[in-house]
């Protein structure tokens, strides 16, 4: 069974940083394309970033230059380092692979 468990969300001031983690199990993590998506209040799902098995990373224009996706295949863990956070980054962040996503972790950017 594919399982994805996110952690690391919280309340942060504008300009601050957070690192999200996603613990994966139940599938060959090292060969999987992984992604982060988010859902802001009252809005639909938005793709944030993806990383391939070869560590090629891709970002939406809204986070490019501020967020960094990475993976640790030895720990079956996906990360999202978020810097220069803005109020518009407030959302529930999910990690996903294929059609499966985790339960999400809340990120709130507010002063």
Characterization of this structure:
With 111 residues, the protein is mainly β. Helices cover 0% and strands 52% of the residues. It is built from no helices and eleven strands. Strands 2, 4, 5, 6, 9, 10 and 11 form a seven-stranded mixed beta sheet that branches. The protein has a four-stranded antiparallel beta sheet with strand order 1-3-8-7, with no helix packed on it. The termini are far apart.
Structure summary:
The protein is an all-beta fold and 111 residues long. The chain has strands at residues 3-7, 10-12, 18-25, 34-39, 45-51, 57-59, 67-72, 77-82, 91-97, 100-101, 105-109. Helix content is 0%, strand content 52%.
Using brief descriptors, characterize the structure shown.
globular, seven-stranded mixed sheet, single chain, 11 strands, 52% strand, mainly beta
Structural class comes to: mainly beta
Query: Uncertain spans, ≥5 residues at pLDDT below 50?
Result: none
Radius of gyration: 13 Å
Strand tally is 11
State the helix count. 0
The sequence of SSEs as H and E is EEEEEEEEEEE
What is the 3D form? globular
**Major sheet size, sense and barrel closure:** 7 strands, mixed
| Average residue-wise pLDDT | 97
In which range does the helix fraction lie? Answer: under 10%
- Portion in strands: over 45%
Terminus-to-terminus distance: 40 Å
């Amino acid at each position: 069974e594919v399982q994805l468990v996110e952690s690391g969300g919280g309340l942060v001031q504008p300009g601050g940083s957070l690192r999200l983690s996603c613990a994966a199990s139940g599938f060959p993590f090292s060969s999987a394309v992984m992604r982060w998506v988010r859902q802001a209040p009252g809005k639909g799902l938005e793709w944030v970033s993806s990383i391939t098995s070869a560590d090629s990373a891709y970002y939406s224009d809204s986070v490019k230059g501020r967020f960094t996706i990475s993976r640790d295949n030895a720990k079956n863990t996906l990360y999202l380092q978020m810097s220069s956070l803005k109020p518009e980054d407030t959302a529930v962040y999910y990690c996903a692979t294929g059609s499966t996503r985790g339960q999400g972790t809340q990120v709130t950017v507010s002063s």
